[in-house]
From TrEMBL:
InterPro entries: TMA7 (IPR015157). PANTHER family: TRANSLATION MACHINERY-ASSOCIATED PROTEIN 7. It comes from Glycine max. Residues 32-45 have a biased composition (Basic and acidic residues). It holds the Pfam family TMA7. The lineage of its organism: Eukaryota, Viridiplantae, Streptophyta, Embryophyta, Tracheophyta. This is Translation machinery associated TMA7. It comes from the Eukaryota. Residues 1-64 are annotated as: Disordered.
Length: 64
């Protein structure tokens, strides 16, 4: 009757959560959030295509 004693213990599995019932207000908020995330992704993609703003960035003085 040997038991496994060394090493790391396995984490316990979480029970599966039940599906939640959403009302109209919750569904509207979820939909709005998805649309905002989609718009943000599109803006990020456009910003990456154009490159940096202003070109040169910060100007450094010649002094040390």
């Amino acid at each position: 009757m040997s038991t496994k004693q060394g090493g790391k213990a396995k984490p316990l599995k979480k029970p599966k959560s039940d599906k939640k019932d959403y009302d109209e207000v919750d569904m509207a908020n979820i939909q709005k959030k998805k649309e905002e995330e989609k718009a943000l992704k599109e803006l990020k993609a456009k910003a990456q295509q154009k490159g940096s703003f202003g070109g040169s960035g910060l100007k450094k003085s010649g002094k040390k």
